[in-house]
């Protein structure tokens, strides 16, 4: 997709559609549309005065220019009350306008002025957010559609009308494209995206100067990632362990859960819970996409991306409830439930990262628990750990990028609940509630002294509905959050 910035007058600019945002209650024609409206004999003023368009959030009205100016249509889009507005609103309005342009107007090119809306953030930040929202909103997963494929509209080109913001528009587009990569990987059927293929996607980052090491099953055996191997036993497909290294400077490791399919193992999931488990690799996908964004944006950081990837299947040799398995750091894990597999593969990935890769800080991302979804829904991800600075840093980045995280408590009692009588730790809390936190407490047993935070993205990685710039399916949540956290380290 092409995304440009042009400095042009709206009444002489040729485009299929110009998007203009208005706060509610809309009372008069915005200054930038005055000359356009004069040429349209007051059609916009008429819509506003007649209360046909009031600027309510998500309300929109299409005004045809009837060839009186080179642009074919004006899309008035409601932004709600000015006092409620923030940068995320611009992203959302941009995402919604891209969808209206494609699905309602049936066009593949449009222009926008949303970044010119007055807000108490810089014009550069506004332009970046509008680029992000527009590219994210244009996303659709149509790879496997064959019937009437030529009728499916695909946005080809977006133009921001303004000046001096090119670099930020480019950055917004890069972030959104990387997020769309996560969406593609999440949406890809699990039979077509096995650990080997997920590792291939990481390998492609070599073209950007990223050093990528891929370990196959034999390599994983040599490394001693015994917990990852245990989870893999029920699957006929080999696991992969991947380390990506970009840049120099402060060394931050991002560690992802890469379950390309989670059937639950012998503790098999019921059909409705299993249906979307092709997206259980979103942590790994976010790590790949964040390293990609770091390389494309040339961040001045040393980013180490790590992920452990396998399927969790109930095959003939599957690991069993009651098994006791060793992890990379020598600690033993009592398997109380084979469906709590993410924390087991992360145990190895985290311990390996700390001991061998020796970063200054570690952030892991995982679609780890249904309990986190119960607690926080799909609005924000859960974050936990003992490093208050790291957590508040992530919360700040979340608020700027709209990919919010909310801290869950991490009291000692939760840590007691994952102690085992027969091994060092249990992969399930002894008390059945607080599952998002006991999962985090389990992970903490595999990080000894490095500042570390765990982000549970189970609720935010997948959407059952279309929402402004979010499509049904994989959301891509986490890339903007991490890139912002890294560049403001
Ligand atoms: N991958 C799931 C968690 C999940 C659930 C992610 C829904 C995204 C959406 C994880 O491996 C899992 O199965 N967790 C179990 C743990 C339980 C057995 C303690 C869960 O949350 O139900
Ligand atoms: Zn599971
Ligand atoms: Zn899982």
Give the helix/strand layout:
Blueprint (H helix, E strand, L loop, with lengths): L1 E5 L10 E8 L9 H6 L3 H7 L10 E5 L8 E9 L5 H18 L4 E4 L10 H15 L19 E5 L4 H22 L7 H9 L7 E5 L1 H7 L2 H7 L7 E7 L4 E12 L8 H4 L7 H15 L5 E11 L11 E3 L5 E3 L7 H16 L3 E6 L3 H7 L4 E4 L3 H14 L3 E3 L4 H5 L8 E2 L8 H10 L7 E5 L5 E2 L9 E2 L4 H9 L2
Parallel strand pairs: 1-6, 2-4, 2-5, 5-6, 9-10, 9-13, 12-16, 13-17, 14-15
Antiparallel strand pairs: 3-4, 7-8, 8-10, 11-12, 14-17, 18-19
Helix pairs in contact: 3-4, 4-5, 5-10, 8-11, 10-16, 11-15, 13-16
How would you describe this structure to a colleague?
The protein folds into two domains: 2-165, Leucine Aminopeptidase, subunit E, domain 1 (3-Layer(aba) Sandwich), CATH 3.40.220; 177-487, Zn peptidases (Aminopeptidase, 3-Layer(aba) Sandwich). The chain is of the alpha/beta class. It is built from 16 helices and 19 strands. It has helices spanning 34-39, 43-49, 87-104, 123-137, 166-187, 195-203, 217-223, 226-232, 271-274, 282-296, 342-357, 370-376, 388-401, 412-416, 435-444, 479-487, and strands spanning 2-6, 17-24, 60-64, 73-81, 109-112, 157-161, 211-215, 240-246, 251-262, 302-312, 324-326, 332-334, 361-366, 381-384, 405-407, 425-426, 452-456, 462-463, 473-474. α5 packs antiparallel against α10 (282-296), α8 packs antiparallel against α11 and α11 packs parallel to α15. Helix content is 35%, strand content 21%. The chain has an eight-stranded mixed sheet with strand order 7-8-10-9-13-17-14-15, with helices on both faces. It is elongated and about 80 Å long.
């Amino acid at each position: 997709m092409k995304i440009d910035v042009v400095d042009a007058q709206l009444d002489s600019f040729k485009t299929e559609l110009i998007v203009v945002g208005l706060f509610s209650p809309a009372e008069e024609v915005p200054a930038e549309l005055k000359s356009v409206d004069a040429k349209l004999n007051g059609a916009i003023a008429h819509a506003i005065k007649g209360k046909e368009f009031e600027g309510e959030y998500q309300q929109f009205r299409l005004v045809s220019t009837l060839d009186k100016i080179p642009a074919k249509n004006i899309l008035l889009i409601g932004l709600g009350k000015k006092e409620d507005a923030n940068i995320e609103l611009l992203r959302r309005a941009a995402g919604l306008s891209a969808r209206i342009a494609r699905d309602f107007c049936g066009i593949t090119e449009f222009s926008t002025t949303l970044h010119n809306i007055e807000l108490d953030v810089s014009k550069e930040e506004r332009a970046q957010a509008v680029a992000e929202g527009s590219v994210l909103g244009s996303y659709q997963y149509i790879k496997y559609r064959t019937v009437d494929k030529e009728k499916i509209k695909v946005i080809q080109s977006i133009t921001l009308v303004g000046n001096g913001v090119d670099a930020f528009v480019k950055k917004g587009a890069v972030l959104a494209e990387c997020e769309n990569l996560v969406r593609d990987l999440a949406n890809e059927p699990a039979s077509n995206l096995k650990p080997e293929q997920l590792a291939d996607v990481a390998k492609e980052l070599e073209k950007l100067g990223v050093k990528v090491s891929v370990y196959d099953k034999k390599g994983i055996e040599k490394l001693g990632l015994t917990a990852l191997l245990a989870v893999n036993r029920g699957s006929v497909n080999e696991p992969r362990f991947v380390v990506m290294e970009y840049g120099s400077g402060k060394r931050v490791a991002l560690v992802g859960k890469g379950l390309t399919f989670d059937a639950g193992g012998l503790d098999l999931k019921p059909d409705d819970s299993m249906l979307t488990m092709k997206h259980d690799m979103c942590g790994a996908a976010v790590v790949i996409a964040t390293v990609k964004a770091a390389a494309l944006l040339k961040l001045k950081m040393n980013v180490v991306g790590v992920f452990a990837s396998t399927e969790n299947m109930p095959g003939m040799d599957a690991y069993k409830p009651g098994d006791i398995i060793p992890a990379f750091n020598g600690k033993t894990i009592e398997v109380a439930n084979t469906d709590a597999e993410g924390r087991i593969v992360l145990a190895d990935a985290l311990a390996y990262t700390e001991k061998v890769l020796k970063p200054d800080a570690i952030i892991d991302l995982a679609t780890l628990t249904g309990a986190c979804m119960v607690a926080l829904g799909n609005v924000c991800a859960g974050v936990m750990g003992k490093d208050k600075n790291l957590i508040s840093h992530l919360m700040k980045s979340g608020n700027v990028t709209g990919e919010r995280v909310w801290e869950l408590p991490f009291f000692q009692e939760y840590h007691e609940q994952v102690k085992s009588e027969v091994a060092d730790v249990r992969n399930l809390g002894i008390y059945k509630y607080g599952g998002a936190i006991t999962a985090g407490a389990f992970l903490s047993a595999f990080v000894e002294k490095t500042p570390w935070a765990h982000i549970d993205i189970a609720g935010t990685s997948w959407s059952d509905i279309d929402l402004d710039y979010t499509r049904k399916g994989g959301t891509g949540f986490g890339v903007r959050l991490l890139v912002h956290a890294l560049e403001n380290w």
